[in-house]
Design brief:
alpha+beta; EC 2.3.1.-; acyltransferase; globular; Aminopeptidase; GNAT_YJDJ; transferase; Acyl_CoA_acyltransferase
């Protein structure tokens, strides 16, 4: 699924409007780091790959901005386990197994 994901700095989250509902990934930015704290997909949209598509778009943006990733959200950590090519963005010393 291709999502149109936008950064909403006022709410400190990336957002994707899907079928009239809002999926989002909250973050905290501090200097050159981004802490991904919480992913939320509306119940009616669960199981459709929206969360994974959202995380992918966010990781692409993190890479484009040359930020260091600190994955505090369990869903993001799970995504990184399944897609180890993105672990290059993760702050040194954080182990995702």
């Amino acid at each position: 699924m291709v999502l149109n994901v936008t950064d909403n700095p006022d709410k400190k989250r990336y957002e994707a409007n899907v079928e009239g509902s809002m999926a989002f990934l909250e973050y905290i930015k501090a200097k050159d780091k981004i802490y991904l704290t919480h992913t939320e997909v509306p119940t009616a949209l669960e199981g459709k790959g929206i969360g994974s598509s959202l995380v992918l778009k966010v990781l692409e943006d993190v890479e484009r901005q040359d930020l260091t990733l600190v994955p505090l959200c369990p869903f993001v950590a799970m995504y990184l386990k399944k897609h180890p090519e993105w672990k290059k963005l993760v702050m040194k010393g954080i182990n995702i197994e």
